[in-house]
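User: I'm writing a tutorial on reading structure tokens. Could you give me a worked example: one chain, its sequence, then its tokens, then a sentence or two explaining what the tokens reveal?
Assistant: Sure. Here is the example chain.
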Amino acid sequence: MNQIIGYVITGFGVVFLFLGALGVFRLPDVYNRLQGGTKCTTLGAFLSIVGVGIIEPAWFLKCLVIAVFILFTNPISAHALARASYKSGVKLWDKSVVDKCKEFEECIKVEEEGK
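And here are its predicted structure tokens:
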């Protein structure tokens, strides 16, 4: 029974990994690709690794440690990449509606001028 549950969880992980790859391929700019890829690959990798741990119970603790490590580091690294891209001048997609970083920087600039 554990193996069936493990295979199902691993299968869900594979589906999310596929959707993340599809998002990286289809989305229009760096920021959308990072967002789409990061969310799907984080969940996909987490589910795949936990599924393998359920299939092979002797590996479960090691798989859980790896999965938690991915759960913490993947979003942080994507944030760092997006911030570095923005600071180096990579443009948003032409049809992007909101640029929160630009609004934040303008707000900081106004506060500094008021001091």
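What the tokens reveal: The chain has four helices and no strands. The helical segments are 2-26, 30-55, 60-87, 100-114.
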